[in-house]
Task: inverse folding
C-alpha cells in the first residue's frame, strides 16, 4: 500500500483524548479536544489494571494477534463528521472539518490519570458506570502504565424521558454521542436506518434502541509500545468488565477520530492544501482501521462505530473493506473562467433581497451551458443547497424557476442530502438543540414553529405552489406524515389522547352511576383528583357536594373524544358543538361554575404521557401496538409537551397555569 503524503515509517501514535466532566468544561479546565485512535495490533503481553469505581484488579494477558493495519487507504478515506465553526454548529452537526489542534500533547496522559481509583467522579449519575483500564508492559522495569482506556457503561432505561438532558451532563463526549446518533428518547435516529445514503451499509437498526451499551471515550497507547496488540487488549478488557457488570450490555460504541497533535501539525505545515487534506484523511483512516480490525462497524454514515455482542449480528458479516466510508471532499466544478463556487461569504451574510441581486449579477453573466450553474463546493453542495441552507426564500424561489432547477433539486451532496434534506436537517437541529459555548441545550419541548421564511423554503422545495392553510401549518410545525390535525397533532398522538378521553369518560361515569363502584362525592374526588390538576381550587371543592358538576366534567371527556375522532383540534369551540341539546345541562353548569374544556384536554395529555413508552410506563403501546402500527409515523409522534403548548396557544392560555405551577405539574 503506498504511503499517504506526509507519512513516515515511524510507528503511528495512538492518542485519544478522554472526556471531561461538565464542571471542567464550565471552568475552562482540561483540553477540549477530540479522540484519536491509531494502533496496529500484532502481538504482545501485558498486565492490565482495571478500575471500576472503587474496585481494582490486575491480570496477566498474553496473546498473539496477526493483524497489521495500514496507515490509510489507496483511493478512499473518511473525513470527520463534525464542524467546529460556530456558525455551522446549528446548521449541521456532522460536517467534515478537521479536529482542533492540541497545544499540549502531555495533557492527554494527564487527563487519563485525572482522579484516583478510590473515588468515582460519576457516582452522581446512577445510570452510568465508569470503567478505567490501565495496561503495563510485561517486561518493563517501569511500573507506570503504557496505555489507558476510559469507558462508560450506559443504562438508558431510567433516563429515556430526559435522555438528551441527562447525557449532556456528565461529559462532552456523551453529549455529542447523544445528539449525533440518537433521538431524544435514546433510539437510533431514523435517518441512520432509513435514508438511502445516511443508513450506510444498513446493518444497524432498532436493536441499537434497546439494552445497555459501552461507550469508549478514551484510548491511548504510548508511542514506544504501539503495534503490539495493546490497543486491542485495552478494549477487550473494558468489554469484559462491562459484561461482568451487566450481561445485557449488547453493544459498544466509539467515535473513531484522530487528533491533530503538535507533531502532526508540523508535518502538515509543509504540505500543499490538497496534500494536507490527504494527510489528515490518512490519519482518520488509520483510526477507523483500528476499530474495524477490533470488530467495529460504522453506524450509518456517522463517524461513530459500534460493536455487537451477538456473533450473528449483521455487522459481523460485513468485512472491513465493505464497511461504509465517507466520500472525499471535492474541488469546485465551476467554469474555467471562474473557479470559485458562485455562492460566496458576502452572499451568505447579506439579506435575502441583496443576495438575490448578487446571485443574478454573478450567474446571469454566464450562459446557461456554463458549468457554474451546476457547480458544487467541497462538500458537494450546489447553489440550491447553499441558498436553502441559509433560508433565502426569495433567492430560492428565483433559482427554482430556472430550466435546470429539477437537476439542482435532485442533486445530493457528500452526505447524501438533496437541498430539501439539507434544509430539513438544519431545521431538525434547530428544533432539538441549541449550542451555548461548550454546552448543548435540549430544545425539543421549547419548539414553537419554524419561521415564515423557513416554512416558505420548505414549501418551495416540496413543490407546493398553492398550499392550503393546513398544509402551511404542517410545514411550520414540522409534520412529516402530512396528516397532523391542526398541523401539530399527529395521528399516533391523537390516538393516545382519544384513548385517554374514552377511558376516563367510561371510568368516571361508572363511579357516578354506580355501575363500576358506588362512591360519595368526597370519595369520587379523592379517587380522581389526579384528573383535576388543571382546574381551579374552587370548582374542585364544589365537586364534593355537586353531582351535576361532576357529571359535566365527566361528559366533556366524551365530547373531546368525539372531536378527536372527527379529526378536529379539541378546542372549546370544536368540543362544545357535541354538547348541543344535552339534558340535563350538566356540562353548561360545569362551565358556568368555572370549569373549562382545556382542563379536560390537558388532563388527557397528562394521562397519555404517563402511559407512553418513553415518558411513562408504556401501557399504551403494550395494549394497542397493532393499532398504532397501522397509523403513519410522524416527527411529531410522542411530542406531548410541544403539542400541548400549541393547544394552549390556540386557546389563549399561558404556557403553564397558576394551578400547574403550584402543584409542580409543568413537565
Result:
Amino acid at each position: 500500500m503506498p504511503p499517504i503524503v506526509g507519512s513516515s515509517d515511524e510507528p503511528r501514535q495512538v492518542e485519544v483524548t478522554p472526556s471531561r466532566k461538565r464542571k471542567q468544561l464550565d471552568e475552562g479546565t482540561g483540553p477540549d479536544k477530540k479522540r484519536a485512535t491509531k494502533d496496529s495490533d500484532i502481538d504482545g503481553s501485558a498486565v492490565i489494571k482495571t478500575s471500576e469505581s472503587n474496585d481494582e484488579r490486575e491480570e496477566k494477558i498474553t496473546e498473539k494477534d496477526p493483524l497489521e493495519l495500514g496507515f490509510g487507504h489507496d483511493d478512499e478515506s473518511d473525513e470527520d463528521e463534525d464542524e467546529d465553526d460556530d456558525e455551522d454548529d446549528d446548521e449541521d452537526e456532522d460536517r467534515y472539518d478537521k479536529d482542533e489542534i492540541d497545544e499540549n500533547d502531555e495533557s492527554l496522559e494527564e487527563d487519563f490519570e485525572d482522579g484516583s481509583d478510590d473515588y468515582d467522579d460519576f457516582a452522581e449519575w446512577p445510570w452510568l458506570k465508569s470503567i478505567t483500564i490501565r495496561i503495563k508492559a510485561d517486561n518493563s522495569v517501569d511500573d507506570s502504565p503504557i496505555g489507558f482506556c476510559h469507558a462508560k457503561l450506559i443504562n438508558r432505561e431510567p433516563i429515556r424521558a430526559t435522555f438528551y438532558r441527562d447525557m449532556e451532563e456528565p461529559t462532552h463526549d456523551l453529549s455529542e454521542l447523544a445528539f449525533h446518533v440518537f433521538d431524544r428518547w435514546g433510539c437510533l435516529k431514523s435517518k441512520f436506518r432509513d435514508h438511502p445514503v445516511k443508513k450506510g451499509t444498513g446493518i444497524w437498526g432498532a436493536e441499537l434502541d434497546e439494552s445497555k451499551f459501552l461507550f469508549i471515550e478514551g484510548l491511548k497507547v504510548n508511542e514506544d509500545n504501539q503495534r503490539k496488540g495493546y490497543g486491542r487488549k485495552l478494549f477487550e478488557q473494558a468489554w469484559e468488565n462491562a459484561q461482568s457488570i451487566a450481561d445485557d450490555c449488547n453493544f459498544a460504541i466509539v467515535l473513531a477520530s484522530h487528533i491533530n497533535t503538535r507533531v502532526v501539525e508540523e508535518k502538515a505545515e509543509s504540505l500543499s492544501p490538497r496534500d494536507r487534506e490527504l494527510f489528515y484523511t490518512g490519519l482518520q483512516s488509520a483510526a477507523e482501521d483500528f476499530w474495524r480490525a477490533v470488530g467495529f462497524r460504522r453506524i450509518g454514515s456517522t463517524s461513530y462505530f459500534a460493536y455487537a455482542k451477538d456473533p450473528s449480528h449483521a455487522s459481523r458479516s460485513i468485512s472491513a473493506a465493505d464497511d461504509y466510508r465517507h466520500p472525499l471532499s471535492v474541488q469546485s466544478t465551476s467554469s474555467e473562467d471562474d473557479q470559485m463556487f458562485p455562492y460566496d461569504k458576502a452572499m451568505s451574510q447579506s439579506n435575502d433581497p441583496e443576495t438575490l441581486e448578487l446571485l443574478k449579477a454573478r450567474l446571469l453573466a454566464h450562459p446557461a451551458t456554463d458549468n457554474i450553474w451546476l457547480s458544487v463546493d467541497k462538500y458537494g453542495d450546489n447553489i440550491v443547497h447553499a441558498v436553502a441552507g441559509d433560508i433565502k426564500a426569495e433567492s430560492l424561489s428565483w433559482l427554482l424557476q430556472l430550466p435546470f432547477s429539477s437537476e439542482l433539486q435532485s442533486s445530493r451532496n457528500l452526505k447524501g442530502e438533496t437541498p430539501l434534506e439539507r434544509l430539513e436537517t438544519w431545521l431538525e437541529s434547530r428544533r432539538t438543540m441549541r449550542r451555548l459555548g461548550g454546552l448543548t441545550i435540549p430544545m425539543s419541548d421549547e419548539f414553537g414553529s419554524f419561521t415564515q421564511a423557513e416554512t416558505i423554503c420548505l414549501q418551495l422545495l416540496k413543490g407546493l405552489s398553492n398550499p392550503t392553510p393546513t398544509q402551511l401549518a404542517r410545514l411550520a410545525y414540522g409534520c412529516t406524515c402530512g396528516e397532523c390535525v391542526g398541523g401539530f397533532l399527529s395521528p399516533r398522538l391523537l390516538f393516545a389522547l382519544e384513548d385517554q378521553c374514552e377511558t376516563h369518560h367510561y371510568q368516571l361515569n361508572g363511579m357516578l352511576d354506580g355501575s363500576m363502584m358506588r362512591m360519595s362525592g368526597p370519595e369520587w374526588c379523592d379517587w380522581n383528583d389526579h384528573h383535576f390538576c388543571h382546574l381551579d381550587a374552587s370548582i374542585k371543592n364544589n365537586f364534593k357536594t355537586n353531582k351535576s358538576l361532576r357529571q359535566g366534567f365527566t361528559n366533556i371527556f366524551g365530547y373531546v373524544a368525539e372531536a378527536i375522532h372527527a379529526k378536529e383540534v379539541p378546542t372549546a369551540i370544536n368540543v362544545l358543538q357535541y354538547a348541543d341539546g344535552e339534558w340535563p345541562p350538566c356540562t353548561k353548569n360545569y362551565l358556568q361554575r368555572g370549569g373549562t374544556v382545556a382542563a379536560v384536554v390537558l388532563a388527557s395529555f397528562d394521562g397519555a404521557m404517563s402511559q407512553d413508552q418513553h415518558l411513562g410506563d408504556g401501557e399504551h403501546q403494550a395494549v394497542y401496538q397493532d393499532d398504532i402500527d397501522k397509523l403513519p409515523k410522524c416527527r411529531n409522534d410522542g411530542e406531548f409537551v410541544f403539542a400541548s403548548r400549541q393547544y394552549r396557544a390556540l386557546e389563549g392560555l399561558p404556557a403553564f397555569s397558576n394551578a400547574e405551577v403550584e402543584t409542580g405539574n409543568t413537565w
Q: What stands out?
A: The two ends are 58 Å apart (CA to CA). The longest helix spans residues 491-513. Residues 1-50, 53-116, 332-338 have pLDDT under 50 and may be disordered. The first strand starts at residue 43 and ends at 52.
